[in-house]
Specification:
Layout lengths: L2 H6 L9 E2 H8 L3 H9 L6 E2 L5 E3 L1 H15 L4 H26 L1 H9 L1
Antiparallel strand pairs: 1-3, 2-3
Length: 112
């Protein structure tokens, strides 16, 4: 692996760079909280060769959002479901925006 390749991982939101302890510290939670959001299938950390959980920045943003909801009194299972739905809505809005901007969609609307 070249130095350029290893440094490019620093910019990759999906690269599992953080151990459970560090990830928990970064989002102000406990390792037990991260295990709970994993059990609720909100995030699925990758495993190191030694079997340790590793989290990406994207996963930490998702877990941090769930932590905000839990801190506001939402049960953890409900918080995880809310975050999943928010993520799906955001993705649907992004796809919708792409489709609105595509030339074939614009042309099709003009024919109607």
């Amino acid at each position: 692996m070249t130095a350029d390749n290893s440094f490019s991982r620093l910019d990759d939101d999906d690269y599992p760079a953080y151990t459970m302890g560090r990830a928990a510290e970064m989002i102000g939670a406990t390792p037990a909280f991260l295990r709970a959001v994993g059990e609720a299938r909100l995030v699925t950390p990758l495993r190191s060769d030694g079997g340790h959980r590793r989290y990406s920045r994207y996963q930490l943003r998702i877990a941090a959002r769930a932590r905000e909801l839990v801190d506001a009194g939402t049960p953890i299972d409900a918080a995880c479901r809310i975050v999943i739905l928010e993520d799906q809505l955001e993705e649907a809005a992004r796809i919708n925006e792409e489709l609105r901007g595509s030339p074939s969609t614009s042309r099709h609307r003009a024919d109607a």
